[in-house]
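We include this case.
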Amino acid sequence: MSPAAVAIGAWAERVIAEREVSKARARQLRWVAGELALVRNHEEFPFRDATDAVDLLQPGPITAYLDLAARGELRRRAKAGDAHATNASMRIRADCLKILGEHGGILVDVPDRPGLPELRETVDGPSRSQLRDYLAKRAEHVGAPAARVRLFALIGVELDTGARVGELAALTLADLADDLSTVQVVRRPQARTVSEAVHETVKLSDGTRAALKAWLEVREALVQPLHGNAKALWVSVMPNHAGHLNVEGEAIRRPPGMPLMPRGMQRAYTRAVVEANMALAGSPGWLPLPVRFEQLRRAVTEQHRHDDDADAETTDE
């Protein structure tokens, strides 16, 4: 992108189109661009004559913008309690500023970017195996509820791939090999990094393949009324709210078979873990599982990293 005189909003849209960022990152970039446009009207912003993206992405305007943002001065809606921005939102601002600058050859340096919080405890190997076994017993019998069949397949894919919730939600039928031996995952690191997306083909275990086969049969029945338009691998099993109202003011409900969103995926996992913790309490070796999907994901990626390191050491020998 040539560093010509371009409004910050248009600049952000060009970055989104040319970089092919995830939907989440696109929302973040538009949010930051919106704040940069808004800050020019703030009485405490000393660079109100900054007229385009190049001007706004210089060290002085960026420092002033981040200071006002950190103090909560750019909120469009009032917030109860402490109005200061969270560390997480300030990290997102810093990362988005870097992305916006990179596309114009502008070095954006945020030396005070907040560090990452201490990561929560992950799920150990025996507990992951027990969770898989527990789900299998509840999903593999004839007539098992669709939600259980879906969750068993979902956890299987997660244990094999270590994908983020958003990456799992983005999977389509086309990402699966015809024999279900592999799945292609588009790794889209978000918030903590500005790395480009990476396409990775991951081998699936026999248990996951069996779980997926069962889920695809259930899925076919769910999407059939949609006349084959649903391409998402993971779809809803119950009607849910579409998020807006009809002309009578009543909530519009989406039918089953619609793409499963990351939030719905997290809720399904949390319900299963809460249920498993209650059912398996007191079982030999069982430790209560954390209810956040992210903790399971990090446990899987740590195990994969450990296995890769072991393979490398063996090769070196």
Observations:
- The beta strands are 182-187, 198-203, 240-245, 251-254.
- Residues 306-317 have pLDDT under 50 and may be disordered.
- Residues 293-316 form the longest helix (24 residues).
